[in-house]
Amino acid sequence: MNKFVTFIALLFLAGCAGLNPNIGERSTDVAWTSGDKVRAFEIAKPKAEAGEPWAQLRLGIFYENGWGDSRDDNIAEYWYKKVIAQKSKGDWAEGKLVGATGKQGYFNQNSDARIAEHNLAQIYLINNRNLLEAHRLIKNVIKETEGKDVFFCCEFAGGRYFSQKQFIELEEKIAKKLSEK
After folding, report:
1. CA distance 110 to 159
2. Taking Cα atoms as reference points, which of 151, 43, 49 lies closest to residue 97?
3. Complete DSSP assignment for 64-104
4. Chain segment 97-119, per-residue pLDDT in tens
5. CA–CA separation, 36 vs 67, rounded Å?
6. Terminus-to-terminus CA distance in the chain, angstroms?
7. Which residues pair with 162 in a beta bridge?
8. What pLDDT sits at residue 48?
9. Whole-angstrom distance, CA of residue 153 vs CA of residue 150
10. Percent of the chain, pLDDT > 70?
11. What is d(CA 124, CA 126) in angstroms, rounded to the nearest whole number?
């Protein structure tokens, strides 16, 4: 029975309320979801500058929306490209804790990169620039996710996912805009 209890405890700790291998991610997301976007920005910024993909994604989101600093699509693009460049192979990069190991701050980095690709494609569409690159980015997300939603954060009510429906709708909007040119 002790092994069973230990196993259940480990499952709990691996969940959203438990330990996070990306130090600062949970604090950032709790501050963000509670409305303290400036604090969230302050927590994420040094981690992003240190190269951690989870924090780079959040800085991209914060700059895209003007949370914690001024709104600036060019700076958001910079951070999104940093995340995208860090795609990797292996279970750790794909967000699997059991049996996987990796560098702290890089857990689930491929989900972060796919969300960054989606967000960057959206910026390009909204600004009506780099539409071919926007189309390439979102098609890549659709291909890599193989019909599955992408987990983002559990601090939002019910968790936050980017859905296949979102990806497909964005791809269709970009394709339509390209066909109009």
Report:
1. 18
2. 151
3. HHTSSS---HHHHHHHHHHHHTT---STTTTT--TT----T
4. 888 888 888 999 999 999 999 99
5. 9
6. 66
7. 150
8. 97
9. 10
10. 86
11. 6
**Average pLDDT, stretch 12-34?**
74
pLDDT of 61 > 90? The answer is: yes
Q: Which residue type is seen at 47? A: K
Alpha-carbon distances, residue 52 vs 57, 113, 149 (angstroms): 9, 11, 22
Question: Tokens 């995208």 sit at which residue?
Answer: 84
- Full-model pTM: 0.87
Which is nearest to 41 in space by CA: 84, 71, 15? 71
Burial 23-38 (b: 16+ CB within 10 A, else e): ebbbebbebbbeeebe
Element (H, E) at 39: helix 37-49
Q: Report pLDDT for 156.
A: 63
Span 37-66, average pLDDT: 96
Does residue 162 contact residue 118 with C-beta atoms inside 8 Å?
yes
